[in-house]
């Protein structure tokens, strides 16, 4: 099978949730003997570090990336609004990249063109004109829903009104895509229920985010610490991560310290906003960007993921689970996973619930070992990339036979 994977940001190196979700499929499709060409859009917030590009990856995927200046511009936003376009998506389109894509499609034939997220879909009409490939849309989340949840937290009236306009525009855009694509692959049951409802004329399939469990080798038998440390590793350019952390350090952290004054928390990830750092005071260690996410996570005990908004699958939660960590997250963080609260992770939506779960882990440390073992087994069964890609290949073969 010949596949073009068109990505909204560089999937390599796989150092964020989105890039891991894209690269894991690429690598396993290659391992299964399929031909995968990877193209990616670079934007101001997502540039490629040439020093981190792997020569084998470039050769095996015929990888190419193209810079698109997605910086919001008021004049372009107004123009898009007048033409009833969704500016947040349309700003990923350039004539230069369109011409490059036309050239590729004239020179090569593909069976499947997989479009990662809505931000690659402005090129659909062009793809349809120059290729007979099946076009498969792979949303990493329900885009308008993520913004709707952010709008619920917004107190500024004018910004709230602007967000509501954006939400409706994105919602309409998501719906209209159904008439332009051949199939949709959702990353979770939660997302699939929505897309199957609005894309009634095309096949939709759940293909969960997969991990290669061998990449998450636990270096030694996990022994819970007598005084476990908390940790968070996030992509701080994602608004939902910042908002969740702000809430946690304003509302939850003081209560944790009141009940467990010796507790410490380590925060990792590059470009942590300065305003957020100011909230990280007593007993908080700001690690910043770490060279190895796995090594960082294995050094600590309890993963805290206080998401208030968002959609899709938080890949960092899966990575923490794969390493046998106890993850405490919110209902928003857990809703796209098939994990069971109290068995493979812990769910807390209020400061009191966070304190209660942390207290249980501190006072009964064997709980961490129990949940961590269940969590790793859960990822090995439910998010095993080898098994997931076999599902994807079967779906693609069925699609091609239609």
Describe this structure in words.
Helix 1 packs across helix 17. The strands form 2 sheets. The chain has a 7-stranded parallel sheet, with helices on both faces. Strands 10-9-8-11-12-13 form a 6-stranded parallel sheet, sandwiched between helices. It has 17 helices and 13 strands. Helix 1 links the parallel strand 1 (2-7) and strand 2. 47% of the residues lie in helices and 14% in strands. The longest helix has 21 residues, at 157-177. With 402 residues, the chain is of the alpha/beta class. It has 2 domains: 2-210 and 384-401, Glycogen Phosphorylase B (Rossmann fold, 3-Layer(aba) Sandwich); 214-382, Rossmann fold. It has helices spanning 17-31, 55-61, 74-82, 87-90, 95-107, 124-130, 143-153, 157-177, 189-198, 239-259, 274-279, 293-299, 315-322, 331-334, 351-363, 366-382, 385-401; strands spanning 2-7, 35-42, 64-67, 112-116, 134-138, 183-186, 204-206, 230-233, 265-268, 284-288, 302-305, 326-329, 346-347. Mean pLDDT is 90; it is low at 80-84.
């Amino acid at each position: 099978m010949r596949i073009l994977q068109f990505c909204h940001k560089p999937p390599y190196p796989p150092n964020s949730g989105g890039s891991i979700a894209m690269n894991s499929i690429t690598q396993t499709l290659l391992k299964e003997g399929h031909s995968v060409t990877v193209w990616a859009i670079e934007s101001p917030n997502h540039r490629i570090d040439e020093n981190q590009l792997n020569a084998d990856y470039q050769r095996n995927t015929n990888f190419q990336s193209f810079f698109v200046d997605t910086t919001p511009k008021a004049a372009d936003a107004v123009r898009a609004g007048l033409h009833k376009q969704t500016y947040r998506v349309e700003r990923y389109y350039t004539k230069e990249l369109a011409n490059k894509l036309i050239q590729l499609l004239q020179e090569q034939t593909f069976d499947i063109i997989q479009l990662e997220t809505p931000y690659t879909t402005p090129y659909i009409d062009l793809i349809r004109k120059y290729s007979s490939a099946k076009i498969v849309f792979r949303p990493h989340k329900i885009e308008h829903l993520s913004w709707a949840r952010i709008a619920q937290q917004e107190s500024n009236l004018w910004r709230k009104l602007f967000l509501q306009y954006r939400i409706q525009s994105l919602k309409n855009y998501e719906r209209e895509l159904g008439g332009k694509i051949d199939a949709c692959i959702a990353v979770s049951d939660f997302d699939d229920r929505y897309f199957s409802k609005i894309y009634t004329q095309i096949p939709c399939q759940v293909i969960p985010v997969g991990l290669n469990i061998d990449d998450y080798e636990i270096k030694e038998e996990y022994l819970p610490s007598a005084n476990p440390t908390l940790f968070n590793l996030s992509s701080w350019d994602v608004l939902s991560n910042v908002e969740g952390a702000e809430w946690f350090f304003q509302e939850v952290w003081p209560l944790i310290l009141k009940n467990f004054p010796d507790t410490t928390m380590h925060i990792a990830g590059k470009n942590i906003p300065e305003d957020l750092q100011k909230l990280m005071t007593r007993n908080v260690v700001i690690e910043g960007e770490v060279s190895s996410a796995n090594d960082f996570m294995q050094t600590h005990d309890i993963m805290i993921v206080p998401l208030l908004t968002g959609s899709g699958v938080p890949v960092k939660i899966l990575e923490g689970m794969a390493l046998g960590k106890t993850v405490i997250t919110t209902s928003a963080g857990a809703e796209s996973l098939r994990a069971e609260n109290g068995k493979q992770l812990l769910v807390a939506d209020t400061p009191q619930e966070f304190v209660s779960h942390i207290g249980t882990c501190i006072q009964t440390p064997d709980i961490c070992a129990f949940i961590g073992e269940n969590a790793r087994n859960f990822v090995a069964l439910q998010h095993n990339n080898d098994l997931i890609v076999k599902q994807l290949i079967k779906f693609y073969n069925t699609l091609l036979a239609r």
